[in-house]
Amino acid sequence: MASQNRPQKPQVGKNHSFWQSWLHAWNGLKTVVIEERNMRTHLVLGAVALLVGWWCDLSVNQWLWLCLAIFLVMLCEINNTIAENICDLITGPHYHPLAKKVKDIAAGAVVFSAAFAVLVGVILFGPIIWHWLMVR
Ligand SMILES: Nc1ncnc2c1ncn2[C@@H]1O[C@H](COP(=O)(O)OP(=O)(O)OP(=O)(O)O)[C@@H](O)[C@H]1O
């Protein structure tokens, strides 16, 4: 019983099982969603794009492009969060030109992937929505 009252030692070593690795990875994803407003925005926009895709009855290939675009934006946002946290860990509250460089480049990657997503959205949905507007 005494061992139950002992405070848990924070883990710094390797994971002992696949389940433990998965749990930490899941916690990491939850952290990005909870802490990053931009990630929540990407999630909402991604869900809207999926709904519009369903409404437009996309082909398998079109679904693949749409999913690629959504996943790329989220992947870049996750990497952006990693870069921000590593910079904050190293610099603390202090300004450092390299931290600025890293954070700005990581943010640039998000914008780049978002531009790809917009392009995919225009190519996939543009003609369908245009046709829908014309026949009404
Ligand atoms: N330690 C630092 N040294 C230099 N510049 C910094 C530092 N911390 C932040 N910045 C600058 O402030 C910007 C915002 O940094 P912050 O870590 O607050 O990101 P954020 O507001 O979460 O950004 P995003 O909207 O990309 O998620 C960075 O892109 C960078 O230009």
Automatic annotation (TrEMBL):
GO terms for cellular component: plasma membrane. InterPro entries: DAGK (IPR000829), DAGK_sf (IPR036945), UDPK (IPR033717). The keyword Plastid does not apply. This is Diacylglycerol kinase. Keywords: ATP-binding, Cell membrane, Kinase, Lipid biosynthesis, Lipid metabolism, Magnesium, Membrane, Metal-binding, Nucleotide-binding, Phospholipid biosynthesis, Phospholipid metabolism, Transferase, Transmembrane, Transmembrane helix. The keyword Signal does not apply. The chain crosses the membrane at residues 39-56, 104-133. The lineage of its organism: Bacteria, Bacillati, Bacillota, Bacilli, Lactobacillales. It is found in: Cell membrane. ATP binds at E36, E84, K103, D104. The active site is at E77 (proton acceptor). It comes from Lactiplantibacillus fabifermentans DSM 21115. Substrate binds at E77.
